[in-house]
Amino acid sequence: MKQIKFGLVGLGRIGKIHFENIRLNCENASVIAVSNLSLDNVKWINKRGVKHIYDSFSSMMLNDEINAVIISSPTSLHSEHIIQAAGAGKAIFCEKPIDLSLERVKKIHALVKELKIPFMVGFNRRYDPSLMKVKSDIKNGIIGKPQIIKITSRDPEPPSMDYMKTSGGLFLDMAIHDFDIACFMNQQKVISVYSSGTVFGNPNIKKLGDLDTAITTLTFENGSIASIDNSRKSAYGYDQRIEVFGNLGITASNNKLADSHYFVDSNGIHNSNPLGFFIERYSESYLLILKKFIYCLLENKEISNNSRVGLNALLISLAAKKSFEENRVVELYEFDN
After folding, report:
1. 210 backbone dihedrals φ, ψ, rounded to 5°
2. DSSP 186-210
3. Residue 75 CA, distance from chain mean position
4. Distance CA 277, CA 311 (A)
5. CATH 3.40.50.720 occupies which residues in the chain?
6. Residue 97: cis peptide before it, omega within 30 degrees of 0
7. Do the beta carbons of residue 239 and residue 154 sit within 8 Å?
8. Is the pLDDT of residue 177 over 80?
9. What does pLDDT average to over the chain?
10. Average pLDDT over residues 244-271
11. Confidence band, pLDDT 50/70/90 cuts, at residue 257
12. How many helices (H) and strands (E) does the chain have?
């Protein structure tokens, strides 16, 4: 069996998840090279027998043994690493977002298309088993045509201020996943976006020009609507729910709980809180998205969540940010040039 040999850049929490998923669960792939490691990560990687360790990503790209790369470096380095990997002819798996700049993402989309580079953006939630069942219900016509999509996405705690300074903000860092899922479920083009929001928590978030609470309405070309509510602070844990209402019924996915235990008394029904955070909640999806990427490379199949999907999600996120800042409905055609 042919093996996909990966180079990996970025060994933060997501990079380590990808590394371990390949090492422990993907018999037809391996990580043979890593680059740009901190001292602690050099020690971590040495225990796992990686063949090549590079000081720079560009040096790693000179290794002809590498078939594909996983880019889980900081967002500010994504476009640089993508361009180098594409130039070296490597297949690319890149964490979201591709970049925070619309112009750079457009250029990357054109580049990978021109060079015919297999490219997947890491919208892992598309591969969550529960959400895949929702998608299957829609595809099979069980609920008819989607009319209203409701998505709730609330984090248990906000990220650090240092992280928020470079993240791109709530819409580009957090809600971008939800915008992508809404489009994934509906398979319709978004034509307009309206967002409103505020800061209920740390006032320093507002000083950054960011917010911790928002509701966004997406209007699709066929008149269907998605309503997405986001919060960076949920007292009861990581809240991830979706409901799709169609003319024939509803398909939905509720929170995953820490366990299935519950008890009932005179005060009501009591069960566990939702799973801690996205690492736990979407653990299966991180493995399944990589397996899908590897399968597409081995079988020469088309990758559905490609650079066009990354560009679309960024467009919606930028429209949401603009809508919030200008307090108006933003039409997607405003970004055409």
Report:
1. -110, -175
2. H---EEEEEEEEE--S-HHHHHTT-
3. 12
4. 26
5. 4-117
6. yes
7. yes
8. yes
9. 94
10. 89
11. confident
12. 12, 15
What CATH number should be reported for the domain whose range is 126-285+313-335? 3.30.360.10
Specify the length of the chain in residues.
337
> 152 has which bridge partners?
229, 241
Residue 89 CA to chain centroid, in angstroms? 24
- Our measurement of the distance from residue 122's CA atom to the centroid of its chain's CA atoms, rounded to an integer in Å, reads 5
Write the pLDDT tens digit of every residue in 197-234: 999 999 999 999 999 999 999 999 999 999 999 999 99
Residue type, 210: D
- How large is the C-alpha radius of gyration of the chain? 20
Cα distances (Å, whole numbers) of residue 231 to 209, 228, 323: 16, 10, 17
Q: Is the pLDDT of residue 1 over 50?
A: no
pTM: 0.93
Architecture of domain 4-117: 3-Layer(aba) Sandwich (3.40)
CATH 3.30.360.10-classified regions of the chain: 126-285+313-335
